[in-house]
Specification:
The complex is a heterodimer of chains A (298) and B (273). Chain A has 298 residues and is an alpha/beta fold. Chain A is built from 11 helices and 13 strands. In chain A, 33% of the residues lie in helices and 27% in strands. In chain A, helix 3 packs across helix 4. Chain B is mostly helical and 273 residues long. The chains are: A alpha/beta (298), B mainly alpha (273).
Chain lengths: 298, 273
């Protein structure tokens, strides 16, 4: 099967500044991929190149087997820009009808699309009166037009409340199950954690990490934190038994590598009644993200 | 074709909501009415029917007003999309930039046609109401209508080109007004000064006619005056009008819209969203 997207050694510079440095990746049909990075890491640039909006310097790129920006590629690709905007004088319904016509679809499907993103009630109001979240939903509705093989979504959940965000990911799951590939960008790992198959981390134009969340967690090999609450008045005894612990937040804190976790737990539980409580804190998603995105000398 | 029509429909709706339809129609009707009222005195003496005289006056009016309305409608076409941030999304759709511009052109031409028909219609009704023989001028009026649309198309296309080149609405607006001043006002003044200074020399005989043909507004005026019986009723370029055959000015006003559109498409293709 043709990959939905193939990038080989893709490089782009703007007046001496390297926006993308030899980035290679492949996205298979039905795959949901999250692109993470700080502002200016190259996420939007990469997306605009994939869409054929801006040229690239070197490397190779195939969008559903075609050149980016070609009629075939555009017919197969849907895009949701960051801070999507529409003409304020048109209503949501008119705008979606227009986009349907541009894709050669029946404009009568517009109401159904607006219904899917929960905008039925405002369909006949001018977009100029919409809130940011509502404009974002119009943007989502237009990205669902036809059956795109590749959806390129630039920070799609910005401006959405947590409930809408969950609805949005449910919508994406349905699309991916139908075989659509999804490339979405975000600057927060917490937002995409369980809803994507693969995570790419861009830092200063370099692809610094790629893999599923468990993969990245294992590769980052960040230490696990153990927080021990000793019984009242027993802190000194426990500290003597666990010299690597440091007092913190009214308890004792231990950082230990992944592989040392179980032996350490054995030692702690051996202290028996001296211990009131024990919490195991795995590295947070933000810790993992920072680990990869800062590795390039930040 | 569907994509062009869909673009035209959306643009027409936007033009309607932004009051462009109302503004353009009001401008044309108002000026036509003033012209009809002011031009009511000197008719009979010329031996022409009332409507032909009105058409001659309307020609002079349209040379100023049609390009102005066209430029006002078009300067925002590309620059406005860039500023609103709507262009990147539009360009990821399977629609070519040429199709987008042609769609906008159709919508803006339709608005212009409404304004022209309303304005000229008022003047024609006024002329026919006073002079029963005025129906003799109907062919001249019809000629004025379609040639005004060609003139409008030229300046719409030029407006799109300006819009694409300047990329900011404010810059585009400034350029559009400057272009209007140069082509419509200063160009004629410059030619007049050159002809006076030349005093019947080679410039007047060899260069001047082509200079007139090269300017779409002058070609429009020439064509309508040559083709009309009421040439004598109009001042200005009427003398020159007699030495240039009608087919040449017609060719100029027919080719200019195509050239302007081609220029606009080339300029739009250079815009990186």
């Amino acid at each position: 099967m043709t990959p939905s997207l193939t990038l080989k050694q893709l490089t782009k510079t703007f007046a001496g500044f390297t926006a993308l440095n030899a980035v290679s990746l492949t996205i298979a049909p039905g795959e949901r991929v999250a692109l993470l990075g700080h502002n200016g890491a190259g996420k939007s640039t990469m997306m605009k190149i994939i869409l054929g909006l801006i040229p690239y310097d070197s490397g190779e790129i195939h969008v559903t087997g075609a050149a980016p920006g070609s009629t075939t590629a555009r017919a197969n690709t849907a895009y949701l820009p960051e801070n999507v905007a529409f003409h304020p004088a048109l209503t949501g319904l008119e705008q979606i009808r227009y986009y349907l016509a541009l894709r050669g679809e029946n404009p009568a499907k517009a109401m159904d699309l607006l219904d899917r993103v929960g905008l039925t009630h405002a369909a006949k109001r001018r977009i100029g009166t919409y809130s940011k979240g509502m404009r974002q939903r119009v943007g989502l509705a237009q990205s669902l037009i036809g059956h795109p093989k590749l959806l390129v979504l630039d920070e799609p959940t910005s401006g959405l409340d947590p409930v809408s965000r969950r609805d949005f990911y449910t919508l994406l799951d349905g699309l991916a199950a139908d075989g659509a590939s999804i490339l979405l960008s975000s600057h927060a790992l917490t937002e995409v954690e369980a809803r994507t198959d693969r995570i790419l981390i861009l830092s200063k134009g370099n692809l610094v990490a790629e893999g599923s969340l468990p993969d990245l967690r294992r590769r980052a090999a960040l230490p696990v934190a153990l927080h021990i609450t000793p019984q009242a008045d027993k802190a000194d005894v426990v500290l003597a038994a666990l010299p690597e612990a440091t007092p913190k937040d009214g308890g004792l804190h231990i950082l230990c590598p992944q592989e040392a976790k179980l032996p350490m737990l054995t030692r702690i539980t051996a202290l028996g009644a001296l211990i009131a409580d024990l919490d195991v804190l795995p590295p947070s998603l933000e810790d993992i993200y920072s680990h990869f995105s800062k590795r390039d000398g930040q | 074709m569907n994509r062009i029509l869909a673009t035209a429909a959306a643009e027409f709706r936007i033009g309607f909501r932004n009051r462009w339809v109302a503004i353009a129609m009001a401008m044309m009707v108002l000026f036509s009415m003033v012209l009809s009222a002011a031009g009511s005195a000197p008719s009979g003496a010329l031996g022409a029917d009332r409507l032909s005289v009105t058409v001659a006056s309307l020609t002079s009016l349209s040379v100023y007003l049609v390009p102005l309305v066209a430029l006002l409608m078009s300067f925002d076409a590309v620059a406005g999309e860039v500023e609103r941030g709507t262009l990147p999304l539009l360009l990821t759709y399977p629609v070519s930039r040429g199709e987008v511009l042609v769609g906008k052109l159709l919508a803006h031409l339709a608005i212009l046609a409404l304004a022209i028909i309303a304005g000229y219609g008022v003047a024609a009704v006024a002329a026919i109401a006073v002079d029963p023989n005025a129906t003799a001028g109907l062919p001249a009026l019809w000629r004025l209508v379609w040639s005004s649309l060609l003139l409008g198309a030229t300046f719409l296309g030029t407006g799109y080109a300006i819009s694409a080149l300047s990329r900011r609405p404010s810059g585009a607006a400034g350029l559009a007004i400057a272009l209007w001043l140069v082509l419509i006002v200063l160009f004629d003044l410059g030619l007049l000064a050159a002809v006076v200074a030349d005093n019947g020399g080679r410039f007047t005989t060899d260069v001047f006619p082509y200079a007139l043909l090269a300017n779409p507004a002058d070609a429009f005026r020439l064509y309508n005056l040559v083709a009309s019986d009421a040439t004598a009723a109009a001042a200005g370029v009427s003398g020159a009008a007699n030495t240039i055959p009608a087919w040449q000015s017609l060719l100029s006003i027919a080719l200019w819209p195509l050239a302007a559109l081609a220029l606009a498409i080339v300029a739009f293709k250079k815009v990186t969203p």
